[in-house]
UniProtKB/TrEMBL annotation:
Pfam families xref list: adh_short_C2
Domain of life according to the entry: Bacteria
PROSITE patterns per the UniProt record, alphabetical: ADH_SHORT
Name assigned to this protein: SDR family oxidoreductase
Domain Ketoreductase: 7-177
PANTHER family cross-referenced by the UniProt entry: SHORT-CHAIN DEHYDROGENASES/REDUCTASES FAMILY MEMBER
Family as reported in the entry's similarity comment: Belongs to the short-chain dehydrogenases/reductases (SDR) family.
Length: 253
């Protein structure tokens, strides 16, 4: 029996990158899944891999998280298929990383806020009635970009810090219903980082030196495992927290 046996989890951006690693971690612990994102073919490929390897069901729903109606459709289809929701994982985010604050346009800023902060708000609000029924939880993804003011990340950092604030308020307001809400700030090896490592090997090695554990995290075993913990009964008294999962480089007072 897994920690999440028979549960139902919605994961945004669950078809690739950190989201796919999270999906694998949840499936390994027995949770059925709804994975959503903007590209249906990516979702369908992930579904095939997940169902082939794990004894779970996977529902794919293509959706743009910045569109409230599309978010509601994801939740409605999840309830139609499974009848419940135990965990909402808000992982997806798009931004113009690398663009300095002074060079940002309103469109650049809107991209991050709508794909991150608004999407998280829409999914949390739509899931809340069902999370009350299961005394479930929300696991939101923030970033060290916001915690530490990383250069070239102004809109991304703003969206992620907004998500952290939203999470803390939800933990306060929803606690009486047994619903928990927490944040994870990850540092993980993704497809984009693999490409970056190949293009800039010296910069990559310099970056590694700034991580006490001397490596980037694995999306499934390092980041996904923390999300599983927060969704499970092992974290039944954990709410409103931000966990930095960054190999020791996310030290905070």
């Amino acid at each position: 029996m897994g920690l999440l046996e028979g549960n139902v989890t919605i994961i945004t951006g669950g078809g690739r990158g950190i989201g796919y690693g999270i999906a694998r971690a949840f499936a390994k612990q027995g949770s059925n899944l709804t994975i959503c994102g903007r590209t249906e073919s990516t979702l369908l490929h992930a579904k095939e891999e997940l169902e082939k390897e794990f004894d779970v069901e996977v529902l794919c729903v293509a959706a743009d998280g910045s569109d409230e109606a599309q978010v509601q459709n994801v939740v409605d289809k999840t309830i139609e298929k499974y009848g419940k929701i135990n965990t909402m994982v808000n992982n997806a985010q798009v931004s113009k990383s690398g663009v300095l604050l002074a060079d940002h346009t309103k469109e650049d800023f809107d991209l991050a806020i709508y794909s991150g902060l608004y999407a998280t708000f829409f999914y949390m609000k739509a899931c809340f009635p069902y999370l009350k029924e299961t005394k479930g939880s929300v696991v939101n993804f923030a970033s060290g970009a916001g915690l530490f003011g990383k250069p070239g990340q102004s809109s991304y950092a703003a969206a992620k810090e907004g998500i952290r604030g939203l999470t803390r308020v939800a933990a306060t307001e929803w606690g009486e219903f047994g619903v928990r809400a927490n944040c994870v700030c990850p540092l993980a090896m993704t497809e984009g980082l693999v490409k970056w490592k190949a293009e800039y090997p010296q910069l990559f090695e310099q970056t590694i030196k700034g991580i006490p554990l001397q490596r980037f995290g694995d999306p499934e075993t390092d980041i996904g495992s923390v999300a599983v913990f927060l969704a499970s009964d092992l974290a039944a008294y954990v709410s409103g927290e931000t966990i930095t999962c960054q190999g020791g480089s996310g030290l905070r007072p």
